[in-house]
């Protein structure tokens, strides 16, 4: 007897997406967005300690100054800068007539600018974190 | 005899029976889509300046303490700046997470629960942040002990 599948058990095979620049930038945009959102929740809470006492705020901000957190901040800024530049690319894809045609080239532009900004920021930030 | 007029397809007039949507959600999703692009463009400016002033200029993160915050919020421009950043970033982020929940949570009840938690967190954080910006006291007196700083009146 041939095997039959009920419609509810049918799982679509494959996907329309091709897994190239367009889809990977979309994946990276989602992941960085989620990371930034959760940091934002924590960041409002830590800043809110200024209403508890100056000591409470300084204690928690002190934690942000240790080297491991310093590297975490580098990762956070990397996520923000990518999300920002890629977001501008998304706006250009949506609103600029030539946007969809050049979306790949724009992604390389995003990554190039991101690398430049991150090299400059890393030097500055790591010297603040490790320079004492 | 008059010639019957045939409307061009999608000319805006549809027999109600052919309408695909049964609910009246209006154009909320289009407004949300537009909001993401508008708020995103503004947030790039707000957050890049925020990161520059707090992490790059001066002593960077080493220079951040209670006095640094007090110095910034003594200026109404930074209060408005941070308020705009708080509201726009929270709404932008909440809408982003809402879209992600809608994409990946397949069960109706799971979606509702996740979005309930999300919206609760959003309201709590936005209200808390707004209150902190506007009720900030650079020279608080805690348990009768006044905060000591060069910008505070001597006790």
**Helix and strand run of chain B:** HHHHEE
- As residue ranges, the low-confidence spans of chain A are none
Q: Which strand order do you get reading across the main beta sheet of chain B?
A: 1-2
Report the total helices of chain A. 4
Question: Biggest sheet of chain B: strands, sense, closure?
Answer: 2 strands, antiparallel
Structural class of chain B: mainly alpha
Radius of gyration of chain B: 25 Å
Label the CATH architecture of chain A: Up-down Bundle
Give the overall shape of chain B. Answer: elongated
Instruction: Please give the domain count of chain B.
Output: 1
CATH class of chain B: Mainly Alpha
* Count of extended strands of chain B: 2
Query: How much helix, percentage-wise, in residues of chain A?
Result: over 70%
Strand content of chain A: under 5%
CATH fold label of chain A: 3 helical TM bundles of succinate and fumarate reductases
How would you describe what is shown here?
The complex is a heterodimer of chains A (about 130) and B (about 160). The mean pLDDT of chain A is about 90. In chain A, helix 1 crosses helix 3 and helix 3 runs antiparallel to helix 4. Chain A has four helices and no strands. With about 130 residues, chain A is mainly α. Chain A has one domain (about 20-130): Up-down Bundle (3 helical TM bundles of succinate and fumarate reductases), CATH 1.20.1300. In chain B, helix 1 (about 30-55) packs across helix 3 and helix 3 packs antiparallel against helix 4. Chain B is elongated, with a radius of gyration of 25 Å. Chain B has one domain (about 30-140): Fumarate reductase/succinate dehydrogenase, transmembrane subunit (3 helical TM bundles of succinate and fumarate reductases). In chain B, strands 1-2 form a two-stranded antiparallel ribbon. Chain B starts with about 25 loop residues before the first helix and ends in a 9-residue tail after the last strand. Chain B is about 60% helix and about 5% strand. In chain B, a hairpin with a 2-residue loop joins strand 1 and strand 2. Chain B is mainly α. Classes of the chains: A mainly alpha (about 130), B mainly alpha (about 160). The interface of A and B includes residues 53 and 129 of A.
